[in-house]
């Protein structure tokens, strides 16, 4: 495991998983992706429909694409469940623990 200092925050690399309190931008990435997905998903969307859209959403984010893909891969099943609810983007991201209330 490698540790780096960056603007006073410690970053740890470990098996590609996102350490929420150590990953600047992950809350923003989550809210961005969830807002986009909420607009694209209809009320009758199946879990397979949601999974397909989750796999494609990170291609639209630009420079945070790899962080987005890691995030989606790590939380895929939870995100599918959360996107099936009426919760808004911020609530979803708080529920999965990548954003503070």
Automatic annotation (TrEMBL):
<protein>
    <submittedName>
        <fullName>Antimicrobial peptide NK-lysin-like protein</fullName>
    </submittedName>
</protein>
<dbReference type="GO" id="GO:0042742">
    <property type="term" value="P:defense response to bacterium"/>
</dbReference>
<dbReference type="GO" id="GO:0006629">
    <property type="term" value="P:lipid metabolic process"/>
</dbReference>
<dbReference type="InterPro" id="IPR008138">
    <property type="entry name" value="SapB_2"/>
</dbReference>
<dbReference type="Pfam" id="PF03489">
    <property type="entry name" value="SapB_2"/>
</dbReference>
<dbReference type="InterPro" id="IPR007856">
    <property type="entry name" value="SapB_1"/>
</dbReference>
<dbReference type="InterPro" id="IPR008139">
    <property type="entry name" value="SaposinB_dom"/>
</dbReference>
<dbReference type="InterPro" id="IPR038847">
    <property type="entry name" value="Granulysin-like"/>
</dbReference>
<feature type="domain" description="Saposin B-type">
    <location>
        <begin position="23"/>
        <end position="101"/>
    </location>
</feature>
<dbReference type="Pfam" id="PF05184">
    <property type="entry name" value="SapB_1"/>
</dbReference>
<dbReference type="InterPro" id="IPR011001">
    <property type="entry name" value="Saposin-like"/>
</dbReference>
<feature type="region of interest" description="Disordered">
    <location>
        <begin position="1"/>
        <end position="21"/>
    </location>
</feature>
<keyword id="KW-1015">Disulfide bond</keyword>
């Amino acid at each position: 495991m490698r540790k780096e200092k960056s603007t006073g925050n410690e970053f740890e690399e470990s098996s590609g998983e996102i350490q929420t309190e150590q990953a600047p931008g992950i809350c923003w990435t989550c809210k961005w992706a969830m807002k986009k997905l909420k607009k694209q998903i209809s009320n009758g969307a199946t879990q397979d429909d949601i999974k397909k859209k989750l796999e494609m959403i990170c291609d639209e984010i630009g420079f945070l694409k790899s962080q987005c893909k890691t995030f989606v891969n790590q939380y895929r099943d939870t995100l599918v469940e959360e996107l099936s609810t009426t919760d808004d983007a911020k609530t979803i991201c708080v529920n999965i623990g990548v954003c503070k209330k």
